[in-house]
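If you are new to this repository, start here. Below is one unmodified record pulled from the training split, so you can see the exact layout before writing a loader.
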Amino acid sequence: MFRALIKKKNLLKETYDAHKIHLCGDIMYDLYLKQAEHRRIPKNLDLSEEFALLTLHRQENVDDPIRLEKWIRALNELAQEINIICPLHPRTRKRLESVDLSPDFQIIEPCSHAEILGRAERAVITLTDSGGLQKGSIF
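And here is the target side for that same chain:
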């Protein structure tokens, strides 16, 4: 709600009519709060050590083999410093098969929204090209 109040204050500075500004909340934050009881980590995944959560699936990042290779090389370097867990999107899995480079980090199957938020809560850092997960990670 604090962010919404700041936005309203900025709109008022721009001379918007106060009666035309309605604070409606943040649907993504509301969903995050509503799903709190459902966020979970599968029992077969050991998260006892610090880890980075990675998602990589955007067309711009994975469809170009040269760009994908650069991403994987950079992430492999980072994986020398911290355990990286990546629920691998089918699009990325398919593209990885076309480059001659293997990830040096932990690949897991795609997971539900609740599971990805549960992992994001426990991660030291989230590395993502997903706008939804990016926003969900700041709550």
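Two things worth knowing about this chain: The radius of gyration is 19 Å. The chain has two domains: 2-37, 51-136.
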